[in-house]
Amino acid sequence: MPTEKCFDQAPPFPEDVPKLSIPSISLLNLQNGDSETTKEMYEACQVDGFFILDLSESHEGEILLQNAEQMFELAGEVFALGSEILETFAYQPPHDLTGYKSTGKLKTDDGKLDLIEMYNINQDDMVGNSPPRRNPDPIQRHRENIKEFIHLCHSVVTIIQHRLEEQLGLEPDQLSSLNSLHDQSDTSVRLLRTQTQTVTKENLIALGGHTDIGTITLLFNVVGGLQVLPANKENLPANWRYIRPQPNCAIVNIGDTTVEWTGGVLRSSLHRVIKPPGEQAHAVRQSVAYLVRPCQSASMSRLVGGIVPSLQYGERDETRSVKEWAAWRSRQVISGELKPQSRGGILRRPV
Ligand SMILES: O=C(O)CCC(=O)C(=O)O
Ligand SMILES: [Fe+2]
């Protein structure tokens, strides 16, 4: 659905709401190693932790868009099964997020419960890194499409990481090898849906403020509702800014694991989903996310090299395993026990 066709079917995004201004980065330019584009992307990853990735004009990008559209159709089929069937595939947090999460399982910032349904498809299952899992029928029937979507998303993530490695002065593959497609990880394709909102409250929170735990996220949206808390702004209702979904584009954001690895040079920003703005509030909101997690064998320790700051006296390196660390982070998100906040974003000039 992220093509023009899908945007034409949805009500328009209103002009008069506060938006975060983030750059639109051409995938083709990143593929060609264009230095201006690379610098612009690096800066966005430091300042906002978010940027728009324009997939048009790139051959792989165009195929990815078609695949993402198929994932939107798959989401429609999966959620149409209804909660009774989907509950038989319920997720098991915090250790296994694969499967269905009904609404009302997570706390939102206003102390209420979330309004978003999710289905997480496990990458290892789809690419054959682990024995096949039991999945709802539409997922089983579309295994090949999902696998292709994963391969394309993964190669786009690898291009982004290669450009970041150059800017950070790291070795080629120093970042990207930590989320290899062929090693087990908790990487997933997440299908999300929020029903039409009948409640009049403008800032009704569907998914509470959080940072993504993994390395990087590619997000496909058509209907608005995603908001980011800009850097150096207090978490007050007036400070949140919308990210306007754009046709032929993905939204990219940096996750907490990359902040750990880069010693805080890159930033993972607090984001949330609220009731879609303006006329869009009457639309069912679907999105598709590719959430990259590090391989289980990777370390959470800070990378050594380039402009990544070395540990200072008194600072301790992260020694928990990838699994332990992620379970600890997601427990925080689920229980709301620790207030989630943006992390990283120490300004450092690229090499
Ligand atoms: O649906 C969206 O636009 C955002 C979803 C999100 O932030 C997430 O799944 O982590
Ligand atoms: Fe997120």
From TrEMBL:
UniProt domain Fe2OG dioxygenase: residue ranges: 185-294
Single GO MF annotation: oxidoreductase activity
Family: Belongs to the iron/ascorbate-dependent oxidoreductase family.
Keywords noted in UniProt: Iron, Metal-binding, Oxidoreductase
Any one GO BP annotation for this protein: small molecule biosynthetic process
KW Plastid (keyword) present: no
The protein's name in its UniProt record: Oxidoreductase2OG-Fe(II) oxygenase family
